[in-house]
Amino acid sequence: MADNLLRQYLEFYRDLGVRELYRQMPAIVPAAAVPVQAPAGAGPELPPLTPSGDALLKILEDIGDCRRCRLHEGRGKLVFGVGNEHSPVVFVGEGPGAEEDEQGIPFVGRAGQLLTQMIENTAKKEGIPLRREDVYICNVVKCRPPGNRTPEPDEMEICGEFLYRQLSVIQPKAICALGGTAARAMTGHKEGVTKMRGKWYKWREVPVMVTYHPSYLLRPYNQSAKRDAWEDLKRLLHFVYD
Ligand code: URA
Fold first, then answer.
1. What residue ranges do the domains of the chain occupy?
2. From 100, 108, 116, 148, mutation site for ligand 1 pocket: most ligand atoms within 8 A of C-beta
3. Cα separations in angstroms, 92 against 2, 43, 108, 136, 185
């Protein structure tokens, strides 16, 4: 039992792209996830990775007024996730920006408005009745990295437990990774997003479609990537809703 759970933890971190586990684990990672510290049979019982009866509210409660990593220092609001917890598709971004940090809701700034348009317009064109509120949207990290920098591996590792639990509760039919950071975190692959986009990967057994981050598509010199992103979304939505 303990070995099995341990394997799950290790696979989870490997999928997040984490190659090393720190011996001094941050508080959120259950102590028993560091087997080398506990002699066989003498360690505490491993908690289940996804507690049975877990729910989004319970996860939010467990996150609480999180201070598990340095990102809390500059945080306005923690950005947990938004949308339909029974959605068959979950969109995962990198981390909150300034407006998300102010409102506590993911993808509400310019990039978020583009994401909403992309979801709703693609769906409409393809004859799929779908609004933003029908899907679930969240990020790899829940607090805004200073200056919108890329989250550090230890920050993704710490916050990753909550993303894992969110996805385990929602059990989507597919996940859309928005941009390179989310793509690498979800799949463990190390290529750039240009190589990964438009392809299916897996998170656990769940298919992951990688596409460009909407912030990237907002830059004027990346306009041709928009067409690609629309194609990626088309594939994703047909897979999920056909
Ligand atoms: N970019 C992200 O990756 N996530 C957000 O919530 C907003 C912008």
1. 56-241
2. 100
3. 30, 35, 14, 9, 10
CA of 213 relative to ligand 1 center, distance in Å: 8
**pLDDT less than 50: residues of the chain:** 1, 22-47
pTM of this prediction?
0.82
Q: How far is CA 186 from the centre of its chain?
A: 7
* Phi and psi torsions of 206, nearest 5°: -95, 125
- Write the pLDDT tens digit of every residue in 143-190: 999 999 999 999 999 999 999 999 999 999 999 999 999 999 999 999
Q: Which CATH architecture has domain 56-241?
A: 3-Layer(aba) Sandwich (3.40)
Q: Is the CB of 151 under 6 A from ligand 1?
A: no
